[in-house]
Amino acid sequence: MIMRKFWIVIISVFAFMACNSSIKKEGAESAENTGSPFLQKVEVREVIQTSNYTYLNVENKQEKYWIAISKDEINVGDELFYFETNVTSMENFHSKELDRDFDRVLFVSKISKENSGAFQLGHPQTVTAAHSGRKQADPSTDIRVNKAEGGITIAQLYENPQSFSDKNVKISGVVVKVNKQIMGRNWVHIQDGTKFNNEYDLTFTTLDVVELNDVVVIEGKVSIDKDFTSGYFYPVIVEDAKVLN
After folding, report:
1. Which of 2, 35, 42, 93 could in theory staple to 105 by disulfide, Cβ–Cβ 3.0 to 4.6 A?
2. Residue among 88, 38, 69 at smallest CA distance from 227
């Protein structure tokens, strides 16, 4: 009886060691395939193009799921690489343009068709960005917009942003850039023709729908040094704005 128990223990130990070795091997192979434990490798199974974004149904070794990137030429069967740190996950996401609900969409800010050292260093020539973040739209010399009644100009906001922090402001401007339905809201750039130092372009988020070249009056709360992660960092941004006209 004692010998039988001894052999049972020995066999159990070897079985555990073999199982543990298999798990470690699988993890090592996964890391070896991408070169980083945070780098994901996926294969494209379906492509849906919209005016601003490319929706991709992708598959890795474990699952199929949807990701979204800025509009790009992607084909079924393409292999793509992205870092988990460059992802914003949206649950129960509704695309107005597609009139479609997704259980989950991963908005990927940087993606590449090559698992290269340049991509891992963030080389711009190997990266597709899903959102430009803080990047300003090009200045327009033709824009001249009157200050909203009871409001401020973009130059006034940038001249002393701390004085407006966490306060509601009213600003008028021309829409020069729109990124629709990112993280459940629209991201809009406006300019009014004023400028402080090199700051002339203001981003605000809103649920209201605006189009390029619209002249709008918006009202919302000013946030300073706002970090939404995944490349969404703004020294100054107006959040949850309402379009008043």
Report:
1. 93
2. 88
C-alpha R_g of the chain: 24
The Cα 212–Cα 208 span in angstroms is 13
Residue 34 burial by Cβ neighbours in a 10 Å radius (0-12, 13-18, 19+): middle
Q: How far apart are CA 108 and CA 70, in angstroms?
A: 9
More confident residue, 75 or 132: 75
Q: Hey, what domains does the chain have and what are their CATH numbers?
A: 39-129 (2.40.50), 154-243 (2.40.50.140)
For residues 83 and 41, give the distance between their C-alpha atoms in angstroms, rounded to a whole number.
Answer: 9
Strands (E), the chain: 39-49, 53-59, 64-70, 79-83, 87-95, 100-108, 110-111, 128-129, 168-182, 185-191, 202-206, 215-227, 233-243
What's the token pair of residue 103? 């259980």
Biggest alpha carbon–alpha carbon distance for the chain: 95
CB-based contact 92:11 (threshold 8 Å): no
How far is the first Cα of the chain from the last one, in angstroms, to the nearest whole number?
Answer: 88
**Strands ordered across the beta sheet of 79-83:** 79-83, 39-49, 53-59, 64-70, 100-108, 87-95
In this prediction, residues 62-78 reach a mean pLDDT of: 91
**What's the DSSP call for residue 139?**
P
Q: What's the CA dihedral at 217, 221, 227, 232 to 10 degrees?
A: -20
pLDDT digits (tens, 9 = 90+) for 169-186: 999 999 988 888 887 889
The sign of the dihedral angle between the CA atoms of 153, 157, 160, 163 is: positive
